[in-house]
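Hey L., structure's done. Input below.
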Amino acid sequence: MQGDEGDKGTATTLTPSWTSLAPSPSQEPTPTTTTPQTTWKVGYCTERMAAYRVKVGDKAEKRDWCTVKPFAPEGAHKTACMVARWPDGHTAPLANFLVMD
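Output:
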């Protein structure tokens, strides 16, 4: 057949190499960064009878007051800390406010 004379190369079968399937460090996906959660200092004001939180590092130390009454965790002993829950779902134990108080 005409035109086949130039096709005299040898056929090679490619076998996959498992090491070549691993991505090189430059091809590895970079880990997704997550937004760090806000860290809070939490307290309880006996005058207002309400829990509050302050963002750590907030120079103005603006208090975010909890609008819900603190509660005792289910099955808590009388020496356990009461817990405050804010509308955004954040909960924190109140170290100076015990269930027996």
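Residues 18-21 form the longest helix (4 residues). The chain has a mean pLDDT of 77.

-- N.
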